[in-house]
Amino acid sequence: MHTLLETLLESNVINIAILVVILIRFARQVVGEILVQRQQQVKEALEEASNRLKLAEQQLKTAQEEWSQTQEQINQIEEEANQTTQVVKEYWLKQANEAIAQLKTKTQQSLSQASRQVAKQIRQTLIELAIEKVKQTPIDGSQILDRHISLLSYHEAKNR
């Protein structure tokens, strides 16, 4: 029995060895192909990830440039708005100052005209009073008239 067992073991060992050799020979080819495919998949995934990273970096750079341009445009618009505000402010101040100057001029003209009119009325009243006085005075009217006319001329020259 010992021999039978030894024979069986030897034949099983030989069979197992043959099986291992066959498996190694064919399995190595199959496993090698699987490993090559897996390696290729990993390589493709890495390349795709690398391409996505490059694309994301490029998009980030573009977005940052656009952000920068937008900030510059905002600053330019703010500067233009400030300049426009200053120009409009200066324009309205100038308009207000011109209106005030015109109002002052018109007021002075009105005051001057009113003053001339009052002076004219006073002269007229004085002339009327002088004529009335001359009519009531028995003295020579031409002397009184001359005296009042010279007084009126003096006042008139003084008021101008």
From TrEMBL:
Keywords in alphabetical order: ATP synthesis, CF(0), Chloroplast, Coiled coil, Hydrogen ion transport, Ion transport, Membrane, Plastid, Thylakoid, Transmembrane, Transmembrane helix, Transport
The organism's place on the tree of life at top rank: Eukaryota
Entries under InterPro entries matching the protein: ATP_synth_b/b'su_bac/chlpt
Cellular compartments annotated: Membrane; Plastid, Chloroplast thylakoid membrane
Thylakoid found in the keyword field: yes
Ranges in coiled-coil conformation: 36-113
Membrane topology classification: Single-pass membrane protein
General remark: In plastids the F-type ATPase is also known as CF(1)CF(0).
Function: Component of the F(0) channel, it forms part of the peripheral stalk, linking F(1) to F(0). F(1)F(0) ATP synthase produces ATP from ADP in the presence of a proton or sodium gradient. F-type ATPases consist of two structural domains, F(1) containing the extramembraneous catalytic core and F(0) containing the membrane proton channel, linked together by a central stalk and a peripheral stalk. During catalysis, ATP synthesis in the catalytic domain of F(1) is coupled via a rotary mechanism of the central stalk subunits to proton translocation.
Family of the protein in this entry: Belongs to the ATPase B chain family.
Subunit structure of this chain's protein: F-type ATPases have 2 components, F(1) - the catalytic core - and F(0) - the membrane proton channel. F(1) has five subunits: alpha(3), beta(3), gamma(1), delta(1), epsilon(1). F(0) has four main subunits: a(1), b(1), b'(1) and c(10-14). The alpha and beta chains form an alternating ring which encloses part of the gamma chain. F(1) is attached to F(0) by a central stalk formed by the gamma and epsilon chains, while a peripheral stalk is formed by the delta, b and b' chains.
Protein name: ATP synthase subunit b, chloroplastic
Organism: Cyanidioschyzon merolae (Red alga)
Source lineage: Eukaryota, Rhodophyta, Bangiophyceae, Cyanidiales, Cyanidiaceae
